[in-house]
Amino acid sequence: MDDLGLTASILGHVRDGNFYKSILYDSKNIKERAAVEKCINDIVDRALEIKGTYTGEHGIGLGKKESLLKELGLETIGVIKSIKGALDPYWLINPKKIIDKST
Hints:
By secondary structure, this protein is of the alpha+beta class.
């Protein structure tokens, strides 16, 4: 984080490997926002590189949904979309939260 000029804290469950980052930044500052996005992408890539996951116990959410394809692949995303379509054919429940209809 230091090399990106960010201030953050990391908390976690040491036993099961979950950790949470809390990065302080000004979202209106383009440079700071880009640094945070790079940091998050680096964390996702590192987690996947060591055969882990970036989803943790709280799921995907809006902030991490773009990385879902990286972790699961197109075929698995297709299965998820099929299940979602069967259970929610009008895509009314949590629209655009985990996957988009057009993904």
